[in-house]
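Summary for the steering committee. One of the milestones for this cycle was to obtain a three-dimensional model of the protein with protoporphyrin IX containing FE bound, which we needed before selecting residues for the alanine scan. The sequence and ligand used are listed below.
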Amino acid sequence: DDWPSVQYQALEQLLYEGRRPDGSSLSALVHPCRKRPTTLASVAAEWLRFAFHDMATHNVDDGTGGLDGSLVYELERPENFGLGFNQTSSDFELFPNKLISRADVMSIGAIQAVATCGGPIIPFRGGRIDVWEAGGQGSPEPQHDIETLTENFRKQGFTKEEMIKLVACGHTMGGVRSADFPQLVAPNPSSSVTVITDFDTTQNFDNKVVTEYLDGTTQNVLVVSDNKTMVSDLRVFESDGNATMRALSDAETFQNECRDILGRMLDVVPKGVTLTDEITLMHEKVPYSGLAVEKDKLVFKAGLRLTQKVNTTPSTSRVVTMFWCDKYGPNKDCKSSTKSSPSVKTLLESPDLSPVTLNLGYYFVSYSFVVPITASESISQFWFEVDEADGSSATAYNKNGTNYIVDQDQLFFTPMLSTADMISNASYTKVYTNREGEAFYRSLNLVVAVRDDLSPSRVYADGHDAAVPFFPYAISGTVDFTMNDSMTSVDGYKFYQGVFNTTGTQVTLDIHADASGKTVTQEFVATSPLDSTVYIAPADVSTDKKSSVKAQSTSGAVSMVLRGGWTVSTLCAVVAGMAFSLHSL
Ligand code: HEM
């Protein structure tokens, strides 16, 4: 199957949509090249520096360290001192999940930071693996002499020339703070707000740090400070007689060299970690699909996300239709007719979209489908067609000609019947967290639907939550579900209930049912927003509209695991201008 894996698609969403499945936006924290309202520090600079310091513990000699998330346990060290690190750590803590490590979040954060301030698009590969403890020492400090600095970067895997590039590409954003380095930047005696002296005259990711250094106008205190012990940038920049700096004084060369060297920096991982292929923008994506029970009706919900060139809009006469086939009965696999429905909602993107996508020249247009389904016919496969209604022929979006196959209809999560309770942690002991004084935990009352003919011996879910404040550790556990007879079954589906507790904010579930020696699974289901999911009534179904695409024979077909993540309400919220971040909750 050449279609991207579930992990690829999850990483693709955080990188290109800049948000979690529930809509909480990472990009919105940094884009457009934001300053923190409190400290006036550049968020982008903090994020880029964070990734560098996490990477800097790499040791090429024994393959240990690298981008592995260890930095969050190293913030007490002098080399990682400062408010910027703590704020960045809390920016990132809500975004990791089972398939996206903290180290992947840091990399994506660094890439978005560079992109939103006018820098290059750094290629991203995922699959970094987190450690859950501090690693070795690593990050360079301004009082180090050039031999120490050169050896430090050699250990990270970089030559002297690469060290110069890395420092120049890093020190084009942000600056030095009086609170962190009073010996370099004098505090303001009449204010408690930290003074920040920027490395160059712009907040942007540009080569001013280089050109101002070369023409002698630089304000970079790591070059011009009277405290000659602390001028590490000067020592680094002139260590090859300024040859590398002169090469970087060409604006385009600077952007290209920074893309390459920062890309290499982000891919420094401990020995034994294999990164994924490069995560590229998907121009056709089904962000969610699956059966659901809503208002006592069995429905099938799916989304279609398409890209649209910036400064253009889709034609107002465009009609997007989902086609599908029955799984059972006389019309199985569209033997005699195909069912179809136009989208029930069209959603244009908010401006908080990932700067990476915007820099590529795209934004997204998403279409939602909710259609009634009967258990006796069910659904075996679906695909989409976009008709611009301008006389041209319709375009099919059918997963490279294979159609989207619904691999099972036996078991699915029912978000709208599930609830989340916030429970005060006063009496709650540290089962799920080691953080003192944790104020609340979330108790998720989860409901799944099981088809009658399955008769499972066990229904259970593996829950996972890595989005835990302060990163004590990820929460994982297995919940057994029991049948709830008091919930009336819907069209031959019975409901099972189970409870998962977490102090985190982003539980995902792999739901399983064991029956006759087999296990049926619904993989990587998001558990937000549950009962606050916006209800959208199912659309009318036609059986006469012709599709230009043929149904596939589904026997033996490669299947797509039903995926959760009911993002419909989220997308509505974004469209209504209510893009939210969980930080404000
Ligand atoms: C010789 C090696 C390096 C030394 C000694 C060094 C030192 C420093 C110091 C002292 C600061 C000021 C921090 C503060 O005031 O809190 C700083 C800021 C920064 N560094 Fe480096 N750095 C080095 C290499 C790098 C590299 C390789 C990168 C990234 C590729 C990088 C990215 C940054 C960024 C973005 C900031 C600004 C942070 C902000 O404004 O919040 N640095 N660095």
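Key point for the committee: Residues 41-42, 45-46, 48-49, 52, 82, 84, 140-142, 149, 166-167, 169-171, 173-177, 180-181, 232, 236 surround protoporphyrin IX containing FE (CB under 6 Å).
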